[in-house]
Amino acid sequence: MSTQPSFDAAEWLAKNTIGGRHLTPEASKAVADFTMMWNLFEGDACANTASVREFERLAASSNAENLPADVIQSLEDCIAFWMFRYRTPDGFSERFVGLNFRTNDRRDHVERVLLGERTSLQDKILALAVIVYRLRNNLFHGLKTLDMLNDQVSNLNTASRCLGTLMTLKRSHLVRPPPPAEAQVHKGRSAAARK
Questions:
Q1: How far is 175 from 44, CA to CA, in rounded Å?
Q2: What is the crossing angle of helices 69-86 and 153-167, to 10°?
Q3: Which residues, in sequence order, are CB contacts of 113 under 8 Å at separation 6+?
Q4: 67-98 pLDDT, tens digit each
């Protein structure tokens, strides 16, 4: 039985595409990581049908009182990153417009969260899921040149982190749920007592 040689996408892109030679290893890794995380998120948290309606269900079922502090902090960090990336002193940047919101993508909701007008955890979860969904759609359907991915590394890395955090919000056969918030408090007290 013969084995197939491994396939190196970066090598193929460098040889066969315009702009592929300029794609950085960091950009290739960010795309690969995001693709893996999106696959898990859509299959597990969205029952293979990612949509704004599914994101609304995920947000509505999230119990903010029982979420561990590190999960909440991760969500807040993602919001802060996209506030900085997409807001300007005059409103929203071209990057935000470039998310290419469709009619039912709840753009108004995302704007209000990024402006700090909607602050509940459920509001933030929905906004984060929509932003990542728009990034996913643009990556999978709207790529204009390969080297533009070099400017998306931090964006895709944040999106991957966000997906990982969002997946912990729903019971799953794939993802271990975070320990309840009170378990982390007890764990912290036990560690302090040992010092």
A1: 9
A2: 150
A3: 79, 119, 123, 124, 126, 127
A4: 889 999 999 999 999 999 999 999 999 999 99
Residue 77: CB atoms within 10 A of its CB come to 13
Q: Which alpha helices (H) appear in the chain, and where do they start and end? A: 9-16, 25-40, 52-60, 69-86, 94-97, 107-114, 121-141, 153-167, 181-194
Annotated domain spans of the chain: 23-169
Beta partners for 91? 88
147-179: b (≥16 Cβ within 10 Å) or e: bebeebbebbbbbbbbbbbbbbbbeeeebeebe
Q: Which of 127, 148, 41 is nearest to 80 (CA)?
A: 127
Confidence of residue 14 (pLDDT cuts 50, 70, 90): confident
C-alpha 160 chain-centroid distance: 4
